Amino acid sequence: AAMTTDRDRWQKLADTEIAKLESAEAARRRQAELTRQRAMAAVVPAGGTVVPAANLANPKPGDLRVINVKGVATRWRWCPPGTFRMGSPANEAGRSSNENQVEVTLTQGFWMLETEVTQELWTAVMGSSLDWSGHGKGAKYPVYNVSHDEAVAFCEKLNGLLKSIRGAEGLESRLPTEAEWEYAARAGTTTAYYWG
């Protein structure tokens, strides 16, 4: 059997330390690449092409901005400024008497969550869940039985989180106005439903 010399032991120790450093450097590079990819994926238009965060100054209607909030991927859609007919025509089935049509102009575009706030997002932001057992419970289910004050508190807390998230520049969470909600829900259509 060959004898191990001090020099062999030192070489083996040095090789082990070099391997650890190389492994740590490779891990750092992987993490840097993941961070770069996440920043690049801040906006994903409806067509699926990745738009760098630097191009957020000129979003297109329906562009998708995905922001990770405490492990929950939130999906924000761009609603450009525009004019639309709010309300419903007098001959529309199921129409209420207070839904007279009026022309509304939104002078500023806005980002709006693609869906209602989910139970998963509420819990991540607020740190606890509410009792959602009556109408369905699950991560992707919407929150319900939330008061106006609770909704405003959620928006304020979410804003605090958004300020510290790279890629969330310019996002501010608030309750939409009735006009903004209908404009976004109509998605450029003039029919009772967005699909016709």
Mean pLDDT level = 78
SSE string, helices as H and strands as E: HEEEEEEHHH
Shape: elongated
As a whole number of angstroms, the C-alpha radius of gyration is: 25 Å
As residue ranges, the low-confidence spans are 34-51
Strand order of the largest sheet: 1-2-3-6
Biggest sheet layout: 4 strands, antiparallel
**How many helical elements?**
4
Q: Could you explain the architecture of this structure?
A:
The protein is of the alpha+beta class. The chain has four helices and six strands. It has helices at residues 6-40, 119-126, 148-162, 178-186, and strands spanning 43-44, 64-69, 72-79, 82-86, 102-106, 110-113. Strands 1-2-3-6 form a four-stranded antiparallel sheet. A two-stranded antiparallel ribbon has the order 4-5. β2 (64-69) and β3 form a beta hairpin. It is elongated, with a radius of gyration of 25 Å. Residues 34-51 have low confidence and may be disordered.
Write a concise keyword list for the protein shown above.
single chain; 196 residues; alpha+beta; four-stranded antiparallel sheet; two-stranded antiparallel sheet; 34% helix; elongated
Write a compact overview of the structure shown.
By secondary structure, this protein is α+β, with helices and mostly antiparallel strands. 34% of the residues lie in helices and 15% in strands.
